[in-house]
Design a protein that fits this description.
Chemotaxis protein chec
Amino acid sequence: MEDLDEDQLDCLGELINVASGKATARIADIMGAFATMRPPRIALIDTQRFRDILRDACAPSEGCYLARQVFRGDVSGEVIFLLDQTSAANIATYLEAQLDGDNGDDHDDVLLELSNIVTAAMMRELSVQIEARVTLGEPDLQHLSVMSLSAPPQSSRFDQVIKIETLIEFAEQRIQGRIFIVTHSQCFEWIRCSLNRVLDDLPS
């Protein structure tokens, strides 16, 4: 990635790994099921490339659920939890079975609540590690189609995005959720300096 050397990239990857682990453990505890997490993938991309990534993730089931949570402060952006339609349906079915069918919550409400737990757990842990003061906004859930993601964007809050992506998987329940952290290119210098602080604090 531009302006990040190998040590900084390794450091960022490890910090994301720890934060993702917290989120994975939190949702696994709620689901009462075993989950695995893939190592994070990090890249600096433009907004169209990010839309392409979302479209490709939604393509197998023709749509997806996208839970967004804005964060503001020393760094700003969004943390996103992405579920394809198959995974979203499997979550609802699994939780209903766990509750013996006694679940009065709306399908979208359940997905939003779970997504909020995942995104908040990840961002809180990451902000502690990079010593960032951030405030989380209210989560929002959108149902997107492949067609809507294929259309040119009307507008975008990001000119460039630092894409930090990991995947949480419940293999037995056939559930996959992908987590993205997107932030403005203007925040890049603050992130780079923060990584240097973390590296300087490591035992020599």
